[in-house]
Amino acid sequence: YKLIHFVEGYENEQRCIDIVPSSWITYDVVSDHLMTIFMPLPYTTESTEILHCLVKSKSNPPTSWPSYKVNLVGDAKNYKSAVNKLKLLNSKEYAYSTSSDHGKIRSLADKKSYKLKAVKPTNKDHEKKLLNVPSLDSESDNDNNDCSKVTDCKCY
């Protein structure tokens, strides 16, 4: 689970923080921000129960929900721990398992991790192209790369 701080979308709140499954967070290459799909306002008792159920079970959020820019302010291995850490965020800026002095560094490292995941498919394709080397015994290579044609060899 990740504890998130909404950067925008909840302007009426002083500091709006909540819990989401890690899988709800994505990196937006265009805006250079982390994003999460989240239930839009206004909340009712029923909608809040649905939200908590989806988060607790790590279910996928409805695709009709909007995406919001977020910053990461903590993490937790289970829902109960996430709820406890959420309470800590009333008095602290970050709620990671490590020292709170390193919260900002940890938040930036988490963002970088999501960023790398977002651009990784492109890098994998590039890596495949780079590693696509023709075999030495292929006919077309032998015709085009005849070593006997090389006349300017130097030994060092």
Description:
The chain has one domain (2-119). The chain has a 5-stranded antiparallel β-sheet with strand order 2-1-5-4-3. The protein has helices at 45-56, 79-88, 103-131, 139-144, and strands at residues 2-6, 17-20, 25-28, 33-37, 67-75. It has 156 residues and is of the alpha+beta class. Mean pLDDT is 78; it is low at 140-156. Residues 125-151 are annotated as: Disordered.
How many angstroms does the end-to-end distance come to? 58 Å
Strand-pairing-aware structural class: alpha+beta
The overall average pLDDT, rounded, is: 78
Work out the helix count: 4
Strand content: 15-25%
Approximate helicity band: 25-40%
SSE string, helices as H and strands as E: EEEEHEHHH
Write a brief structural summary.
With 156 residues, the protein is of the alpha+beta class. The chain has helices spanning 45-56, 79-88, 103-131, 139-144; strands at residues 2-6, 17-20, 25-28, 33-37, 67-75.
